[in-house]
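Aim 2 progress update. The chain analyzed this quarter is reproduced below.
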Amino acid sequence: MRKLSLEKRIEAHYESLPPAERRLGDLLLRFPGDIANFSATELAEMAGTSKAAATRLFRRLGYESFNELREEIRNASSWGSPIYIAEEVPPSNNRGSIVAEQLRRDYENLSRTLESIDPKDFADIVEAIASARQVVVIGFRNSHILAFYFYRQLILLRTDVRLLPTSGQTMGEDLVDLGPEDLVVLIGLRRRVAAATKVMELAKRLGARCLLVADPSAAHIRSIATWTITCEVRGVSAFDSYTAAISVLNLLCTSTLRHGGKASYARLRRAEQIHDELEELDTTSRFIQSKSE
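Predicted structure tokens:
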């Protein structure tokens, strides 16, 4: 039986809570992610109540101890729930400091991600992308957005690239022909669905090579993949940052273009020619620039 979240437990008892416990319950509901940063005594003081009242509340909610609750919060934070990774930051009108913090975090994520990539593995991945019979790019939830980006770049460089899942469809029919000559690229950043692991297991069973692009929380499925590129995604507050993941996908596409040489460049040029023939893109800025030169 699945355990109730902290929020559900508090909601279930909220109306019957004594005032002292309700104040602490309100504090926990505001920013549950902060719980792991404080002791039970500190939380009680912040709520204007006693440690004894805090102990009674934790037991009333079904926790044997405060440590059990704190471990639950840490696990939820690692999993990536925005509720549990949001920090209670005092309001600030200093826009410059907010931008600076975002820049610092994204820089750290980029550095740690790119520096962790093994050059030999990366070369093997690029070779697999270029030589596979078909490349099947898969992503669920927010990862589907990144998978779509990767797919759209790859189809400029090679044939037989597919994006899954398609809108409103299951994937069984699309994976029937998967085999040893194919490559599956799973974008699986945290808050993954269960289907992500099942697809990886199926691909491995069918003999296909697998590239997993994921965050550190995917350690439990790394063994299924042929290669794994781990991307740091921790944002400055409630929402993950995909800067490092996008950079990795962009680097893979750039390297695949270089690996493909003349054939990839010819395909890219042909796509541009078709854009021009169909008048699909606004080239006004390009025309203005050429005139000014």
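The radius of gyration is 24 Å. The first helix runs from residue 6 to 13. These observations will guide the mutagenesis experiments scheduled for the next reporting period.
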